C-alpha cells in the first residue's frame, strides 16, 4: 500500500470518510466515525487463544516522537494475513471501558502509518467522550453494500467472492475482502464452533465439502423442487402448484408413504408456492420464472465460511481462494445468471428462517436481492456471470 496521499485510494467508505475528516481537521466527525466502526487490534495468536487474556492493550513507543500509543485498524486497513498473528475486534466503547491507566499516557492510533491515520487522545475525559459518542451512534451499520477498492473486482475470484455478497451486505463487510479476519479472531473462532460445530482443520474441510454438495440447504424442499423441474420438462412449461402437488403426492403414495410424510410434503410445496408468488409480486422473480434449486444458499455461505476459516487460521490463503473459486464454478453450473442465483439464495433463506411470516427475514432477503441486482456498485452489475 502506498503511504503517500497523492495517488492513494481509500479501501472502503470508512477510510475515505476518516481521511476527509482528518484533512478537514474535524475532530467531531472523526469521533463519530470511529464510534460506529469496528476496530481491530493485532495480537499474537497464542495470546488470543489464552483463556481470560483480555484485549491486548499494550502501548508502544514511537521511536521518532517518543510518544506512546495503542494501535488499532479499521476493517479496510487490516494487516496482512499471518499464521501466528491475528486481529481481535473491538469498539470505541469497549476501548473506553478497558483502556489501561498508568505512567505511560498512551493515545489511540487508528491506522498508523497510513494516509488515514488518526491520533485520538485517551485521557479519562476523552474516554468519557468516546463512550458518549458510541452510545449515541447506534453501533456499526447493517445492510450496506461495501467494496474493498484493493480487492478482486474482476475475474474468477471476484465472481466467487460475489456469490457470498448477500451475507456481506447483511453484515456490512466488504464483499471482496479476503484477509486477516472477517468479524475478528474471537468471533470467527466462536461462530465456527457454535454455529458450524467446527474447531479444527479436519472438521473445517468436512463441512466445506458438505456445502459444496449443497447438503445443508433444505433437503425436503430441494427434493420437491427437483420433482417440479422434471414435471416442467415433461409439460414444456412451469406446472401450477396444484399440478406439482398432485404429482409429488402420487409419487409418494405409490411408494407407500404414510400420512405424516404426505402432509409434510404438501406443506412444503404449498409453502414454496406462496413464497414464489410473493417474490413475483415483489419483483424478485419474473412472471414466468421459478426457482429450481436452493444450492445457491450453500454456495453463497461457502464464502463467509471460508473467510471465517481463514480468520480462525483453519486454512491458508491459497486454500481459501481455491474453495471460493470452487463455489463460483458450482454456482455457474447451477444457475444461468446473477438474478437467478440471488432469487434462489433469497428463497432458501426465507424457507430456513422466515416461518411464513413475511416479516423481518423476508424483507431483509428481498432488500438484499434488490441491492445486489439493482445497485450500480454491485458486483452483480459489474462482474460477468459467465
What percentage of the residues does DSSP assign to strands (E)? 5-15%
**Which spans have pLDDT < 50 for at least 5 consecutive residues?**
1-5
Number of strands: 6
Main sheet, how many strands, which sense, barrel?
6 strands, mixed
Radius of gyration using CA atoms only: 24 Å
Query: What is the helix/strand order?
Result: HHEHEEEHEEHHHHHHHHHHHHH
Oligomer: single chain
Structural class call reads: alpha+beta
Mean pLDDT: 92
Count of runs of 4 or more consecutive helical residues: 17
Gross morphology: elongated
The percent range for helix content is 40-55%
Distance from N terminus to C terminus (CA atoms, Å) equals: 31 Å
Describe the structure.
This protein has 386 residues and is of the alpha+beta class. It has 17 helices and 6 strands. The chain has helices at 13-24, 27-36, 45-48, 92-98, 124-137, 156-162, 165-171, 185-194, 201-212, 219-235, 241-254, 259-281, 295-311, 317-334, 338-353, 360-374, 379-382, and strands at 39-44, 60-61, 68-74, 85-90, 107-110, 118-120. Strands 1, 2, 3, 4, 5 and 6 form a 6-stranded mixed sheet that branches. Strand 5 (107-110) and strand 6 form a beta hairpin. The radius of gyration is 24 Å and the shape is elongated. The two termini are 31 Å apart. Residues 1-5 have low confidence and may be disordered.
Write the layout of secondary structure elements.
Blueprint: H1 13-24, H2 27-36, E1 39-44, H3 45-48, E2 60-61, E3 68-74, E4 85-90, H4 92-98, E5 107-110, E6 118-120, H5 124-137, H6 156-162, H7 165-171, H8 185-194, H9 201-212, H10 219-235, H11 241-254, H12 259-281, H13 295-311, H14 317-334, H15 338-353, H16 360-374, H17 379-382
Parallel strand pairs: 3-5
Antiparallel strand pairs: 1-3, 1-4, 2-3, 5-6
Helix pairs in contact: 1-2, 2-5, 4-5, 6-14, 7-16, 8-13, 9-13, 10-12, 11-12, 12-15, 13-14, 13-15, 15-16
Amino acid at each position: 500500500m502506498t503511504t503517500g496521499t497523492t495517488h492513494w485510494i481509500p479501501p472502503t467508505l470508512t477510510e475515505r470518510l476518516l481521511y476527509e475528516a482528518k484533512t478537514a481537521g474535524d475532530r467531531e466527525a472523526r469521533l463519530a466515525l470511529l464510534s460506529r466502526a469496528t476496530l481491530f487490534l493485532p495480537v499474537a495468536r497464542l495470546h488470543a487463544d489464552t483463556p481470560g487474556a483480555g484485549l491486548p492493550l499494550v502501548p508502544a513507543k514511537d521511536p521518532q516522537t517518543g510518544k506512546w500509543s495503542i494501535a488499532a485498524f479499521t476493517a479496510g486497513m487490516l494487516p496482512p494475513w499471518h499464521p501466528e498473528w491475528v486481529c481481535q475486534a473491538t469498539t470505541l466503547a469497549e476501548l473506553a471501558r478497558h483502556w489501561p491507566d498508568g505512567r505511560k499516557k498512551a493515545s489511540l492510533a487508528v491506522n498508523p502509518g497510513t494516509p488515514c491515520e488518526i491520533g485520538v487522545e485517551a485521557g479519562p475525559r476523552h474516554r468519557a467522550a468516546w463512550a458518549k459518542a458510541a452510545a449515541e451512534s447506534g453501533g456499526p451499520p447493517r445492510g450496506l453494500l461495501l467494496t474493498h477498492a484493493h480487492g478482486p473486482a474482476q475475474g474468477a475470484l471476484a465472481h466467487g467472492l460475489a456469490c457470498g455478497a448477500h451475507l456481506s451486505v447483511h453484515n456490512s463487510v466488504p464483499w471482496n475482502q479476503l484477509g486477516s479476519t472477517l468479524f475478528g479472531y474471537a468471533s470467527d473462532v466462536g461462530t465456527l464452533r457454535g454455529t458450524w460445530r467446527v474447531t479444527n482443520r479436519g472438521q473445517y474441510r468436512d463441512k466445506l465439502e458438505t456445502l459444496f454438495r449443497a447438503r445443508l440447504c433444505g433437503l425436503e424442499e430441494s427434493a420437491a423442487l427437483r420433482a417440479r423441474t422434471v414435471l416442467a420438462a415433461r409439460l414444456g412449461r412451469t406446472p401450477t402448484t396444484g399440478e406439482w402437488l398432485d404429482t409429488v403426492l402420487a409419487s409418494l403414495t405409490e411408494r407407500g408413504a404414510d400420512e405424516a410424510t404426505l402432509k409434510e410434503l404438501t406443506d412444503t410445496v404449498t409453502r414454496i408456492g406462496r413464497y414464489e408468488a410473493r417474490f413475483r409480486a415483489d419483483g424478485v422473480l419474473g412472471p414466468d420464472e421459478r426457482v429450481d434449486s436452493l444450492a445457491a444458499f450453500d454456495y453463497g455461505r461457502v464464502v463467509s465460511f471460508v473467510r471465517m476459516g481463514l480468520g480462525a487460521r483453519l486454512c491458508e490463503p491459497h486454500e481459501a481462494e481455491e474453495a471460493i473459486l470452487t463455489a463460483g464454478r458450482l454456482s455457474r453450473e447451477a444457475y444461468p445468471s446473477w438474478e437467478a442465483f440471488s432469487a434462489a439464495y433469497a428463497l432458501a433463506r426465507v424457507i430456513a428462517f422466515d416461518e411464513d411470516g413475511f416479516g423481518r427475514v423476508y424483507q431483509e432477503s428481498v432488500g438484499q436481492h434488490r441491492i445486489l441486482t439493482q445497485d450500480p456498485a454491485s458486483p452483480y452489475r459489474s462482474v460477468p456471470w459467465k
